[in-house]
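Consider this one:
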Amino acid sequence: MKKIKERGETIFLGDDGPLSCCGVSDPYQSTATAPIKRGRPRSPGVEDIRYTNPITGVISSTSRYINEQGIKKNNKPEYKVNGEWLSAGNVPHKRASQKQWDNTKKGYFCRKLGAIETREKMWKAQGKFLLGDHEFKDDRWGRCDKLMEAFDEQVERYGYKCPITLIPFTMETAHEKFDINNRVKTFSNVSPDRIFNHTRYTKQNTIFTSQLWNLKKDESPMEHLELALNPEWMKRYKAIVIERFPDQEYALRDRGSWRR
């Protein structure tokens, strides 16, 4: 057996080639009996890491595999924690790290932009035609500059609060696991809201409100909102709509036409 360095990682070679993720030729041998471990330090609580080839089902210590078209791909890792193999999204240290990122301003808005992208794909799949362009789109990884800039401009105008409910903004992501009947919603969280549903996420058509307002408004027609919600909220909302769309004042009077 010999030891080599590859891309900053220590790899042990046996008579039959590279050793498994546990440092032995048998990939199913546990770390408790493995005489040699990989050189890369693991996160606390992680006993082992493995990759399963999605085509052949073979378990390996490396993420690279070649697909049916002969293209090199990276496989998703699985982590062994307390004797159980878990996906990356279920590993405690990964979830803690993701929560820390999601609760930063950039992480929060990148998450919101991801949700917008998901809606865009859904509309396309459904064959929906919406007016305007998705003006916050950013193809760069981990970037949401346009969305954050639009939010900052609104904050300069209305302050760090919902311009309709006046609730101070928060950006909190629980990132906990809940069943469908037990979900946590933070009503003060920033929520990008489209004024008119027949128009995409344009700068003109998007306002940043509290999640409370966005959930309350939902698909309701204007006359229902006026009956159910705080009159001061409605007054402020109408003022924003008329300021953004001066030629659409009629839509605030006509029954439900602003949501068509």
